[in-house]
Amino acid sequence: ARVGILLSGRGSNMQALVAASREADSRYEVVLVASDKPEAPGLAWAAKHGIATFTASPKGRPKAEYEAQIDAALRDAGVEVVALAGYMRLLSPSFVQRWAGRILNIHPSLLPKYKGLDTHARAIAAGDAVAGASVHLVTEALDDGPVIAQAEVPVKPGDTPDTLAARVLTAEHRLYPQALDRFLSR
Ligand code: GRF
């Protein structure tokens, strides 16, 4: 399948998806990496690795206009499935509806726990023994669609949000490619 990735930052999950897509038995290829942030390091990495990139800045214009450009870029690239990978903006209902059932997101918590930001600090503050990440289908509400895969990691004594984030992120890099592969085999 032809996959388009949306990101806003570093792009380590995008890199994990690209690496997996270049394995011989992969069910997908990453045909476009698009961002709301021209300076996102993930965009530069994608370009350097031969992947088409697209930026549409939302600054100073209506969300519908900005999202229409992203949507057009995805369609022009023949994208069939969209993978959000650290895309830090809520997509509008009309965008989500146009791609319904074909957008995935990875979120750094064991959903339904800790939707939104600061997931690791919240897991530590709650005294959780286990943390993790979830891959879910995107619906109109933030971090709310059906979960299709999860990975757990321990919360260790002395963990800070940063040390826990690093452990969860390593798990994310295994989880997202596997979850996408399984999603595409359905
Ligand atoms: C990841 O923790 C992901 O779960 C969350 O945003 C972070 C993105 O990191 N949605 P990266 O840009 O993939 O490195």
Shape annotation: globular
Query: What gyration radius follows from the Cα positions, in whole Å?
Result: 16 Å
CATH topology: Rossmann fold
What gap, in angstroms, lies between the N and C termini? 12 Å
Associated small molecules: 5-O-phosphono-beta-D-ribofuranosylamine
Number of strands: 7
The averaged pLDDT comes out at 97
Number of separate helices: 6
- What is the highest CATH level, the class? Alpha Beta
Give the H and E element order. EHEHEHEHEHEEH
In the predicted model, the low-confidence regions spanning at least 5 consecutive residues are: none
| Count of all domains | 1
The amount of beta strand, in percent, is: 15-25%
Q: Please give the largest β-sheet.
A: 7 strands, mixed
Question: How helix-rich are the residues, as a percent range?
Answer: 25-40%
- For this structure, what is the CATH homologous superfamily? Formyl transferase, N-terminal domain
How are the strands of the biggest sheet laid out side by side? 3-2-1-4-5-6-7
Structural class: alpha/beta
**Per CATH, which architecture?**
3-Layer(aba) Sandwich
GO biological process, one term: 'de novo' IMP biosynthetic process
EC number: 2.1.2.2
Active site: 107
GO molecular function, one term: phosphoribosylglycinamide formyltransferase activity
Task: Walk me through this protein's architecture.
A seven-stranded mixed sheet has the order 3-2-1-4-5-6-7, sandwiched between helices. The model has no long low-confidence stretch (mean pLDDT 97). It is of the alpha/beta class. Helices cover 37% and strands 22% of the residues. It has helices at 12-21, 41-48, 63-76, 93-98, 119-125, 161-184; strands spanning 2-7, 29-35, 53-55, 81-84, 103-107, 130-137, 147-154. The protein has six helices and seven strands; from the N terminus they run E-H-E-H-E-H-E-H-E-H-E-E-H. Helix 1 (12-21) runs parallel beside helix 6 (161-184) and helix 5 (119-125) crosses helix 6. The chain has a single domain (2-106, 135-147, 172-184), classed as 3-Layer(aba) Sandwich (Rossmann fold). It catalyses: N(1)-(5-phospho-beta-D-ribosyl)glycinamide + (6R)-10-formyltetrahydrofolate = N(2)-formyl-N(1)-(5-phospho-beta-D-ribosyl)glycinamide + (6S)-5,6,7,8-tetrahydrofolate + H(+). Belongs to the GART family. Pathway: Purine metabolism; IMP biosynthesis via de novo pathway; N(2)-formyl-N(1)-(5-phospho-D-ribosyl)glycinamide from N(1)-(5-phospho-D-ribosyl)glycinamide (10-formyl THF route): step 1/1. Catalyzes the transfer of a formyl group from 10-formyltetrahydrofolate to 5-phospho-ribosyl-glycinamide (GAR), producing 5-phospho-ribosyl-N-formylglycinamide (FGAR) and tetrahydrofolate. Keywords: Purine biosynthesis, Transferase.
